Amino acid sequence: MMRSIIGMILCLAPLAGQAATLASTPLEPVYHALFSQRNDLAWQELLSLWPQLTSATQRTAWQQALDAVISGQCGNDLPVTAPAWLDHPTLVLVQRDIPLNRIYRVQLSGNSPRHDFQVSLTLPNGKEVMKAAETEYDPDGQFRLNSQDLGEALPAGVYHLTVRSGNDVWQQSLALQGSGGLDWIQRQGQKIHLQPPVTARACPSPWLEQTLLRRSDYEQVWWHKSDTLQRLAWPPRDDAAELWANVSVIRVEARGGLTLRMEHRLAGPMLTLQH
């Protein structure tokens, strides 16, 4: 991806014999950082320049530059550091397709001995999506909280995450591609068709997960993961009519010390997802 961006910029450079300079664009500092192989600087420029972009063309170029920044080390080299009291923070962007509806949701999870988190997540359009979220704490130290269901796609841009615990505050701006209109898994007639996303070589390959949940309390009763995107037939169940099924295609990147997980989930009554 970075090579394609550099090639595009070089096409805009002056004729041979003149000093090579980049074309005038708000993203010029990002391209300079990419040329210098300074992903950390490119990341900071992406964060600061986002509010200045005024056209769809500029925002598309911003997303392409973000892809280039991620492609080198899958985002593991970016200057995002979680505090000592928050281990393995993971931000999940979910597109959930259910019969006659499409829902978006954000989840934050991780590990911590603390049980007093207050979390805020502001989207690029200024909307706060975690205000009413209740944090669930497990005995083993894991925690998670979910945004409310959203009817609009999660946009690309700069997200602002704040986690408070006692007198400690972790604030982080995150450049994200967003999650909207994903087509990694689709119903085509009576069949489920997979079209996994293309990922950078440095990133893990996408994988598939299947779950069965009781519709009465959404307790998980069966789970399967396939690193090769091979879907299994559902196990025989006497209570099949009372179960909810999920089939998900998942990709993962990093934003430094934070894991970004994007999930396209197809969901519905188990008996309607048999093929």
> Quick one: overall form?
globular
Q: What integer is the average pLDDT?
A: 90
What amount of the residues lies in strands? 35-45%
Q: Strand order within the widest sheet?
A: 4-5-2-1-13-12-10-11
How many angstroms does the end-to-end distance come to? 36 Å
SSE blueprint:
Elements: H1 2-10, H2 28-35, H3 39-49, H4 56-71, E1 87-98, E2 101-111, E3 118-122, E4 136-137, E5 142-146, E6 157-165, E7 168-176, E8 185-188, E9 191-194, E10 207-214, E11 220-226, E12 243-255, E13 258-269
Parallel strand pairs: 1-13
Antiparallel strand pairs: 1-2, 2-5, 3-6, 4-5, 6-7, 8-9, 10-11, 10-12, 12-13
Helix pairs in contact: 2-3, 3-4
Features:
275 residues, alpha+beta, 2 domains, eight-stranded mixed β-sheet, three-stranded antiparallel β-sheet, 13 strands, 37% strand, globular
Outline of the structure:
With 275 residues, this protein is of the alpha+beta class. The protein is 16% helix and 37% strand.
